[in-house]
């Protein structure tokens, strides 16, 4: 039987290293062209995560767990560094030391994603993954905020003349803010809130909205690729946020499955 530790580690690294690689590119595109040092740093991170991504595909479910344990540590180091880079950039923007097109919330957002990846690698290597009731709440609190941010980014990067799409993005932003607050409420009511029926309903309700948002992102990506709408959203960014929604949906599906089994 394949080692679960190896399988889960590789899944996480394959998904998130591509995400980290793309963040480097998005940050670079948002820097002022005179900020060559920051551009070079972003380029360096792009290559680091490209290498990690390639290496993760050279391993398989049958790889030696010890090798994967060491690989996780190497990746963890790299993620720590890109997290620090993102926080540095956030500081430069908020202190008005640099000008560019990276929204502070976007930089904070990508640093939160790096932090999540870092924590996941630590959990894998220390064998301390959350138990199901805690995982359900923690993952939702994290990802609902990520989804709410995405809706806000899309809203602000669409051309203002795309009134219908802007309105849809704003509705998603509101919807996910509400879901996030519900999740935070459930979080503060822990552990009493961790009953089977409440967690079931929580996962079901979030799944419906995430599915809708994922479909909206998919459509947006197709429209942008076909040059049918006006925006300053790079096609890769549209695809990136679509993949993050799909990833969250897979997590929700696995919770649904696990909760049904536990019934
Ligand atoms: Fe991202
Ligand atoms: Fe994101």
Automatic annotation (TrEMBL):
Any single Pfam family the record assigns to this protein: DUF2935
InterPro entries: CotB-like (IPR021328)
Organism of origin: Brevibacillus centrosporus
Domain of life assignment: Bacteria
The organism's taxonomic lineage, starting at the top: Bacteria, Bacillati, Bacillota, Bacilli, Bacillales
The protein, known as: DUF2935 domain-containing protein
